[in-house]
Amino acid sequence: MKKKNIIAVVIVLLIGVFLAFSKVKTTPTIEKSPESLFLSAIENTRYYSVEDVAKMIISQDPLLQLIDLRSEKEYNKYTLKGAVNIPLDQLLKKENLSDYFDQDVYNTVLFTNGSTHADAAWMILTRMGFTNIYVMKGGLNAWAENILKPKPDDGPWDAAADELYQYRRGASQYFGGGKAVVSETSAPPKTKKKKVIKRKKKEVEGGCG
Amino acid sequence: MAPVFEQGSEVNLIAALLIGIAFGWILESAGFSSSKKLAGVFYGYDFVVIKVFFTAAVTAAAGLLILNQLGLLYFEDVWMPTTYIVPTIIGGVIMGVGFVTGGFCPGTSVCAAAIGKIDAWAFMGGILLGIFFYSFTYESIWEPIRNSTKLGKVKIGDLIGLSEGMAVFAFLLFALFSFWLVDTIKKKYNIKDVEY
Amino acid sequence: MKNLKHRGKDKYMNPYVAGVLLGFVIMAAFFFSGEGLGGSGAFKDIVKTTVVSVAPDYAAHSHYFKSATELDHSPLKTWLAFEVLGILIGGILSGAYARRLNLRIEHSPKITSRKRIGFAILGGALFGMGSQLGRGCTSGAGLSGMAVMSVSGFLVVAAIFGTGYLLAWFFRKLWI
After folding, report:
1. Which of A67, A110, B44, B48 is deepest in the core (most CB within 10 A)?
2. With an 8 Å Cβ cutoff, are A209 and C41 in contact?
């Protein structure tokens, strides 16, 4: 019995010493590997054309979440219907990440004036492991050109191009006709903060108190 | 990845029931269903409480750290109490008086009630009375105390400047020392078990 | 342990074995549910359920019950309430296995049953209040708190057992 006790104590102590030098691991951030990031970056799957976005806005797609990455000043001048403003320099703020990107329900579409900054933001967010992030190709410049004041195709007539033109003209009317331009002053649409369905659960509550 | 089941889900409640059954079974078969055995810890004739209690806590602390090392559990994802110094101490003192007069704690009283101890049913009724009293006097007496001296979710290692691993190791040494101590005390003073 | 002449099923488990098994149960609670074990939480849920259903107006204005009135399910549908129900079932099963099931009042021969019951109610009431103030009882705040090496767990265990030892002498007639 005595011997048994000593053996038990020695085993327990060995486990203890082993544990003594271990360091606590914290939740790892899920990062995409450079390879898969590269693949999805060169593929064009991250892009929505301005027509796609227009279609989603018109049909009031409940899963669409538009993020305007420009400055607050520009956002107040003009933005897309329902867009939320997160200036690029505030993108990595904790509450922004948790409120808008840490979810897998909405399709998040990023846009700026062109697409370079939105591309950069897409790269960062994807690298951080967030999903369903897209970029509006060509940004608001393309939006102004194609949706707000569409021009008919100059080349020889073809059915697809004409259909696109007709669609753009229709959309143009929906979004206030050819007059509106990006730089024009117009009241920003009221955007309500959406109730975000979180992927991660809330802080663990409990205990018997 | 822990936790396996989502908080508030039905399957989690079933898990709670099963875990409770295991808990109750172990408590009962270790003798925690007897107030005589439980109170023995204060009079030196039965140290089963200290042995079971500290063995369980050390096993769980070490085991959770191992799960953490294996990447199966992160402490941010599981329950962790927030420390409030003064209410915890006052609450502990009140519970200490309750322990030495009642001979149970809430978990063990349920387990003793299960095997037919009428005093345990009385104890459980007492708990309900106590909580009723507490709840009706909450704003006037308890609320300011309860929310004072908040320290946050602090681990003992951070407080005394030890790494988590070292703290668990120190806890283990402390537990082994206490086991040795209680056995020595019992042998030295030759304290007889009480019978009734 | 000399007085435990029984051998076999009705013998109490070795405390270290029981402790290790209990440690595994705590680990399972954290691993599967992310929760610690508890005891007093279920009693709190019973009180909340009772007050919210009997006096909803009072509950809505009480700081203590307010959160319970805003739930979309019964305050009894909690992890701890089911876990404590499990303790009851587990206790019955183990008691039946070890042939310890029988109605009785366990008390020292120096006190009457009535006195034992009185002190049990008193002790329970103190535990009820203390566990609410201290955010958990011996198993919830203490055992589970120590399992995650929380300051709060060690603090509450030191306070409970410290007080117990300090006062043990005054209450010795109840037990020995």
Report:
1. A110
2. yes
